[in-house]
Amino acid sequence: MAMSLMNRAISRTETVGAFRVSINLLRNFSAAPAASPPSSENPSSDSNKPKRRKKKNLIEVAQFLPNWGIGYHMAKAHWNGISYEITKINLYKDGRHGKAWGIVHKDGLRAAEAPKKISGVHKRCWKYIPNLSKAAPATNAADVQAT
């Protein structure tokens, strides 16, 4: 009988002790944010910092041009002197993805005669090149000599 009374007393003190510890933890966690002063070095307070604009894929650049950019020049942002003159675009149903074909131009001059499928259409690095777009048709050397 004495053992059962001791066990009851121990279990009560353990229960009360665990309850006190949990109350103290709650008190510490609830008081910690209120007690700390607001820091000026908080990274989330940089609300005046401009947000970075999401770059566009070829389809998103072409959708704002007349006739979905057919006949206009586009290039990846890191290309120097290389662009594609868009000849054909196949859109998927969502209107933001698809396939595109074009003629390669190097330094503003045609590098190929036949259009080829453009790779990396969905990558977010495309830009429109305004000074090469819808230029006058190129004249052949034979046409220049004949006149």
TrEMBL record:
Sorted alphabetically, the Gene Ontology cellular component annotations on this record are: mitochondrion
Question: Where is region (Disordered) located?
Answer: 32-56
Looking up InterPro entries in the UniProt record yields: Ribosomal_mS34 (IPR032053)
- The Low complexity compositionally biased stretches are 32-47
Query: What molecular function terms (GO) are annotated for this protein?
Result: structural constituent of ribosome
Q: What is this protein called?
A: Mitochondrial 28S ribosomal protein S34
State the species of origin: Capsella rubella
Taxon lineage: Eukaryota, Viridiplantae, Streptophyta, Embryophyta, Tracheophyta
